[in-house]
Amino acid sequence: MKRNIVIATIAAAALIGGGTATALAVSGDDDAPAQRSSVQVQDDDTNGTDDRDDRDDRNGADDRNGADDRDGGDDRHGGDSSDDNAEDAAEARAAKLTAAEAIKAALAAKSGTAVKAELESEDTNLVWEVDVLSSGNTWHTVHVDPGTGKVLGSHTEQEDADDAAEARAALQGGSVSAAEAAEAAAAKGTVTSVELEDEGSGRGWDIDTTGTNGAESEWTVNLTTAKVTADRSSDDGDD
């Protein structure tokens, strides 16, 4: 079981050109009004955006930066995959607050047990979203500014009792918290996601990291020993 909650839609992390960033929307029935994250990610054309590659009068021709007839692709950087990696790397660099710090900030605002934390983007604004399991079947999603550590807002949901029971059962007997798991995996790269795996024998913390080049890797942190191992359950897990 992996609990899916209502979160902000992931939009493009890079702002092309100028413009005004859209405020982060966080809804809640009984929580403080939403605020905007202070962290934004901008594209400074270092990876060869359209205004660099498409100016025939400056570059002589489109094929200077890797046209189709030379590289067999859209650009010399490897197409969409390279662009995605560049965006991921930019987001990881922009977040000054670590996953562990974001979890601690969320728990200071809402008591309970953190079961998930993820670095998300809304337009050009980054935000940490932390899921906290509270008493009964109550779940809080807390939004934390990755630049300042300030809690921007939260919303509360009442979920199925089975979801809460499964999460608590997975944590039973374990001593490693979500924050401690994030700290353990930090040596592998910038932690961008921490999530409790509570299905079958695969209990543990699922961790996503981003390297300096934007390459993503997946790890599992043991709930009792904090040992970090490569996640072999997906085809794209890396050592």
Strand order of the largest sheet: 4-3-2-1-5-6-7-8
Tell me, what is the CATH class of the largest domain? Alpha Beta
Main beta sheet strand tally, sense and closure:
8 strands, antiparallel
Topology as a string of helices (H) and strands (E):
HHHHHEEEEHHEEEE
Principal-axes shape call:
globular
CATH topology (level 3) name of the largest domain: Nuclear Transport Factor 2, Chain: A
The fraction of residues in strands falls at: 15-25%
User: Helical percent range?
Assistant: 10-25%
- Structural class per helix/strand content? alpha+beta
Count of discrete alpha- or pi-helical segments spanning 4 or more residues: 7
Structure description:
Helix content is 24%, strand content 24%. The protein is α+β, with helices and mostly antiparallel strands and 239 residues long. The chain has 2 domains: 41 residues, no CATH class; 134 residues, Nuclear Transport Factor 2, Chain: A (Roll), CATH 3.10.450. The chain has an 8-stranded antiparallel beta sheet. Strand 7 and strand 8 form a beta hairpin. Helix 5 packs antiparallel against helix 7. The chain is globular and about 40 Å long.
